[in-house]
Amino acid sequence: MTLKYALIGCGRISPNHIAAAQENKLDIVALCDVIPENMEDKLQKFNLPKTTALYTDYKEMLEKEKPELVAICTESGKHAAMALDCIEAGANLIIEKPIALSLEDADEIIKKAKEKNVKVSACHQNRFNKSIQKIREAIEAERFGRLLHGTAHIRWNRGEDYYTQAPWRGTWEQDGGALMNQCIHNIDLLRWMMGGEITEVVGMTDNLKHGFIEAEDLGMALIKFSNGSYGIVEGTTNIFPTNLEETLYIFGDNGTVKAGGKSVNIIEEWLFADNKDNPEEVKAKYQENPPSVYGFGHNPLYTDVIEAIKNDRDPYVTAKDGRDALELVLAIYKSAAEGKGVKLPMEKCSTLDFQGRFAK
Prior knowledge:
The protein is of the alpha/beta class. It has twelve helices and 14 strands.
């Protein structure tokens, strides 16, 4: 059974999705983008069949093509409305991060997907990095003992040209700032590894050198997890002169691990009291070097979603996981705006709540 697949949004991240769809032998029936040239470009670059239909209206595409799996790769602010329309049409979904820009929208996606019995996966592809899978295995085997604290550092660079390429970037209505756009993958990993449940977040955000965007270019946070462990987030797009690193540290009673590289794809430290494996061998084995910060995770994520559809099970990365990552970013924004700690869980919050935050 080959699933009929369609892609909405043919911008910067779309090549990873098309490549993953091809690799997983999906029947690519349609592309959709408001800019026809974007679709023509992808048709040629990926040598897609001439039968691939092109649409500028995704609702028309859903009606005519009836795809079974849709990937949404548009501006972040459009994810929720499109997702709900796709779910209504009976399509399973892969939604690029963030799953939505408000908790209410994320909850609606989760609710409607359940009602319609369709699978929705948030595209947090770094969970499939070999390094991250190895760390997760150690977490699940409780090799760390008691988790003490974990840290996520995203030290990247984004210049003005990045934002002028797509004017929606850096706006509160369609995006958010460094934490929501660039850092959410590692924020997702930190929350997932440290037990998921959070009691309180204390955050600070600022716009230090990106006066041409509305949202933050620097975010810092302290997180208290329900299991008594702590987390630290440091995210920025101000690093001179280019992307430096994305690192994840996990510290426990009996273990210390560091994943680094451009997108947490390399294990740089691997120390456990149980001595079950050779640290040097582990470090040598988990040394992926992807061509970009997007890593190699899209392909296995697609494989998993296809299997989830066929076997009627939850995807490895669920819509709820997408909501969790969104909630943590919004909690940091809220804490920074209010100048005090924020208790979780949160029921309502949106990037729109922070409009005008850094207006000069």
